[in-house]
Amino acid sequence: MMAPTKQPRQRTDRHPFLLSVEDVAQQLETNIHTGLSARQVVELHNEFPPNELDSRGGTSWHTILIKQISNAMILVLVFAMALSFGVNDYIEGGVLAAVIFLNVSIGFFQEFKAEKKMDSLRALSSPSASVLRDGKNEIIPSAEVVPGDIIILKTGDTVPADVRVFEAMNLNCDEKSLTGETEPVEKRVAHDICIPGLDRLATEEGEVGIGDRFNMAYSTTTVTKGRGRGIVTFTGMQTEVGKIAASTTKKPRKAGRSMNYKKYGKAQSLKGGARRVYDFFGKFLGLTEGTPLQRKLSALAYLLFGCAILLAIVVFGVNRFNVTDEVAVYAISTGIAIIPESLIAVLTITMVVGMTVMRKANVVIRDLSALEALGGITNICSDKTGTLTQGAMIVKKVWLPKVGIYTVNNSTDPSNPTQGDVTKGPELSPAGTPGEKRQLKFDVPETKLPKDQRNRDVSDDEEEAAQVSPDLEAFLIPTALCNLATVSLEKTEGDRKEIWQTTGEPTEIALQVFARRFDYGKRRLETDGWKQVAEFPFDSSIKRMSVVYRDPETQKSMIYTKGAVERILDLCFSIRTGSNDEAMTDELKENVIAQMDELAGQGQRVLAVASRTWNGDFPEQHGSNVDSLRSEVEQDLTLIGLVGIYDPPRDETKDAIRECSEAGIKVHMLTGDHPATATAIAKEIGIIPHNLSILPAEISASIVQKATDFDALTDAQIDALPSLPLVLARCAPDTKTRMIQALRRRGLYMAMTGDGVNDAPSLSSADVGIAMGLTGSDVAKGAAKIVLTDDKFNSIVAAIREGRRMFDNIQKFVMHLLASNVGEVILLIAGLGFQDASKQSVFPLSPLQILWINMLTSSFPAFGLGRENASSEIMRRKPHSIKYGVFTPQIIVDMLVYGILMGTCTLLTFVIIIYGVYDGRQGSDCNRGYQTDTYASSCEPVFRARAAVFAELTWLILIAAWEFKSIRRSLFRLDPATQSRFPFFRDVYENRFLFWAVVIGALSVFPAVYIPGLNTKVFKHVGISWEWGLAFGAVIVFVLGVEAWKAVKRYTGWFISEEDNEEERRGGRFGLRQGFWGRARSRASSVRSFNLSRKGTERSEGSGGVSIGDRVAEMGVLSAAPTTRSLLTARRM
C-alpha cells in the first residue's frame, strides 16, 4: 500500500508544549515506558506519510526539456525550419533542424547535470533515530518515525522529528539552523511556559514563539549536551522545519488575479481571467518570468521574428506578391539573416563554462540563469551566524579587576589553543582608556603612515605577552574545572597528523581552549590531583553553573561558579583585586557592570567567574545535583573576573565586504542575534562605521534597526527611509522577506545568503538565493539557486566577479552576432533592387552562405568572446543596469553603427563588381544555378560578386570579434597601462581560442571559394582573383570606421554615465564605503589592493621606492584604510 501524501490534522487538542506529558501520551495513544506496539506502528504508517521534507527535490528531466524547447529563440527557429521544409528547401531546413537540436541538447544536458550535482548535496537531516517500541530500543531510518514514537536522544544526535520532551538530564539542543540563535537551548520537562515578558502562563500556541518552548525539541536540530527522551508529536511537513519548507514553495497569486466577483465586483472575473491568461503566455514565452537577460533575449527573439515577417512581406511586395519558390526562399533567407541562430548555443555554452569555473571555486550553480544574474547584484542580504561569522565561540577578552585585560589576538580556530597569542594590557576605565575618555580615532592618511606607525608602536609598549601569574592562575583554574567541554590533540583515523578535537557546547569549549593556552586544561589539573566532589549543572532559570573540587595542595574544598554577570554579581560579597579581596560596594558593582557593557558592545557574550572556599570538608556523600545544598554553596562568592566570548567573523569576510563596496554592492546583515551583538560584529567587519554619529542624522537613525521596529513600519514608511537598514537584528523569516521586498521596490537586485532553515523563505524570494553547502539545511539548499560548498563569504564575491565577467562577454558576443545580422539584412534588402532579365531579385548572398556565416563564421568568434578574461577593473565599477540589461543604449547604438558599416562595405563591393566592371549584367536564373549559356545570361558576374561579398563579410565579422574585445578602447591599445609601443599581437593572442577562431575562419574562406562543385552548386559562387583587393580594402575601411567611432565615444564621453538606482538617489550621495570601517585590513587584502593599484593605474608610480613588503606591513594597520571623512565626502553633493 502506498504511503499517504496528505498530513492528517493535529492529534492533540492543543499544541503539545501546552500539555502535560501525561496528556500528550494519552492523546497520542502511546506509553512512555514501552513505546508504540508493532500494530500501532503499522496503522500509523498507513495514516501518515514518511517523515521527510518536500523541499524542492531535483527537477524532473521532462520539466527541464520542456523548459529548453519553449525557449523564445528556439520557437523562432522552429517556425523558420517549418517554412524551409514547406517550400521543399530540405538543405536549409535540415541545417536549421540541426541548429535547434544542438541548442536544446546543450541546454538540457548541462542543466540536468547541474541538478544531479545538487542531488549529491542533498542528504537527510537525520538519517537514523533511536526509538522505543514494544519495550525494546531500536535504530530505524528517520523516515520511518511516526507520531507517538518514543525517541531516545543523546549528545551528538540529530532530532528526527518534533518531540515533546518528558525526560531531560542536562539536555541542550543547538537550534541555530531553526531560530538563528547561536547559544544551545536547555530543555526541560514542565509545561509551565510563560508568555515572554509576562508572568502569565501561556494558554494558546501563538503566545509563545518556537524558541521559547523549552519542553519541545525540533526536527533537524542537534543535541549538544546531555540526554533525554521525548514523544514524537509532529513529523514531515507538519514539523516546524516542514512549515518553513512549505512557505518557500507556496507562490502567492499576483495582485489583481482573483476571479472572486462577490468580493471584487462583477467585472473582476473577466479582468482576473485575462490577467491569468497573460501570465500563462508570458511565462511560456519567457516575457514575464526569468532573469533580466532571459526576458530581454525573449523579447528580442520575438522582435526579430516580427522583423523577419516584415522583411518577408517586403520581399513579397517587391515581387508583386507573385510568391514563387524563389521568392519564398529569398524571403526565408532574409528572415533568417536577422535571426542570430547561434545566440542560444553561444549563451548556453558561455554559461556552462562559467558554471564550470564556479564549481572549481566551490560554488554549485543550480540554475544556469543564476550565474548571469549575479552580475547585476546591487545588494547582498546576509545572515550573520555561519555566513559572515564562523558560527564558533572564541574567548576575546578577560578582565581581572585592578590587574588588567588579557586579549586573544590572531585566533580564528575555536578548537586550537596554539593559534594566536595572548597579550596583557592595562585595565580600562569605564570610559574606555586608562584614565581618559575614549576618543574617536579617524583612519590615518597614507602620507602620515610612518609617523603614525612609530606612535602606535610606542603606545603598544603598554601591551605585553601574557604570562601565568597568581592572579591569572586564580582565573584559569575555575575556568577549566567549572566546565564540561574537552579539548585534546588527537590523531585522525588513518592519518598520522594530529588535530585538535573538542566536545561540548561552544561556550564551554571556548573557555576550555583559553585555559589550555596556558596549559591549565581540565585533564591536566585532574591529573595533578584536583578531584571533583560535586557538580551543580547549568540551570537556565538561574543562568549559572557550579562545581566543587578538592585542592590537592591545601586539601580544601573549592567552589567555582560561572554564569551571567548579573546573576553572579548578586551572589558576591567581595571582589578579587590582585592579591587582595575587597568588599563589594556599589561603586565596584557599577565598575563591573560598566566593564560588562564595554565587552558586550564589542559583540561579546560576557560571563562572570567567581569562587569561594568551603568551610571544612564538603560532604561527598551528597554527590551532585543536590538542590538543598545549591543555595548554600552559591553564596558569599568572590568575583574573580569577566570573560568576553564572541563568534568571530570569517577571516575573509572583511576583504569580501570591502571588495563588494568597491564594486558598488551593499551588504546588509539580517540576523536573529541581539542588537548589540549584531551592531558590534557589523562594525568589526566593516558593514557600518564604528561611530555612527559621523553620519547624517537621518542615515544614522535608519542604518541599524531591530526587527520589531522595522516590522512596525508600513511599506510607505519603509519606502520613505533615506536608506534601508544595513543591520537588522532579531529577524524573523517574515522580516527578511519584507526587507527583500523593500529593496525590490527601490529598483535594486539582491542576493540572499544563508544556511539555516529560517533563511529559506528569504532565499526563495530573493532574486538570487545563495545557500551554504556544509552547514546548510536541506530546505535552504532547495530554496536557493546557488550553493557554496565551502560556506565562505568570499566565494560569493568570486561568483559575482565571474557573473560580471560573463555578463560583459555576453554583451560583446551579442553585439557581435547582431551587428553582423544588421549588415546582412541591409545587404539583402538593398539586393531586392538587383533584378535579372526576368525581373527576379538576385541574391547578393545565397541562403547557405547566410547560414554558413551565421552558424560557423560568427559562432566560433562569439564563443571566443565568451571566454574573454575579466577586466582588471571589473570589481571597481557599479553593477550593470537592471533596467537595460545587456541591451544598454551604447550596445544598441554600437550594433547599428557597426552593422550599417558592414552592410555599406559589402553592398559597395557588390555594386562595384556588377556595375563598375560588368556593366550591370546579372545573368538569368542565377539564384538556382551557374548559367553560362550565353554572354547575356551568364551568371559569372553575379557568382564572382557573391564570392567577393562572402569573403569580405566573413573577414569583417572576424575582425569585428577582435575589435569587440573592448567596446571603448582601441584594438591597438586595449590596456592603457601597457608600456609596449605596439601591444596588438600580445593582446589578440591573449585569448587563444578567439585568436585561432579568427585565423582559421579567415583561412576557411579560400576552400569555400575555390573547391569545385562546393562553390557553384552549394554556395552558388565561383573562384575570384582581383576581387580579393576589394575585400582587403573593405576590411581596412571597416577597421578605420570602428576605431573612429570608438575615438568619438572616448572623446565625447558618450554612454559613460549610468542611471542611479533609487537607493543611490536617496542615500547613496553620502558615499558609505563598507569594508573600510574595520579596525584592520588583512594582509591578503593589502596585497590584493597593492597589486591592483600597480595594474592599470598611474597612481602606483608615486610609491616612492617603498618595497612591497614594507607597503604590505604598513597597510595591515588601521591607518592603511581611507579616512572616514574622505569616504563620506567622496560623493557628497
TrEMBL record:
Any one of the GO BP annotations: potassium ion transport
Polar residues bias: start-end ranges: 410-421
Membrane topology: Multi-pass membrane protein
SUPFAM superfamilies in the record: Calcium ATPase, transduction domain A, Calcium ATPase, transmembrane domain M, HAD-like, Metal cation-transporting ATPase, ATP-binding domain N
Keywords: ATP-binding, Cell membrane, Ion transport, Magnesium, Membrane, Metal-binding, Nucleotide-binding, Potassium, Potassium transport, Sodium, Sodium transport, Translocase, Transmembrane, Transmembrane helix, Transport
GO MF entries: ATP binding; ATP hydrolysis activity; metal ion binding; P-type sodium transporter activity
InterPro entries: ATPase_P-typ_cation-transptr_C (IPR006068), ATPase_P-typ_cation-transptr_N (IPR004014), ATPase_P-typ_cyto_dom_N (IPR023299), ATPase_P-typ_P_site (IPR018303), ATPase_P-typ_TM_dom_sf (IPR023298), ATPase_P-typ_transduc_dom_A_sf (IPR008250), ATPase_P-type_domA (IPR059000), HAD-like_sf (IPR036412)
Region called Disordered, residue ranges: 410-467
Subcellular location: Cell membrane
GO cellular component: plasma membrane
Domain Cation-transporting P-type ATPase N-terminal: 15-89
Catalysed transformations (reactions): Na(+)(in) + ATP + H2O = Na(+)(out) + ADP + phosphate + H(+); K(+)(in) + ATP + H2O = K(+)(out) + ADP + phosphate + H(+)
Main location class: membrane
UniProt cofactor(s): Mg(2+)
Coiled coil: none
Domain of life the protein comes from: Eukaryota
Entries under NCBIfam families matching the protein: ATPase-IID_K-Na (TIGR01523), ATPase_P-type (TIGR01494)
Family according to the record: Belongs to the cation transport ATPase (P-type) (TC 3.A.3) family. Type IID subfamily.
Protein name per its UniProtKB record: P-type Na(+) transporter
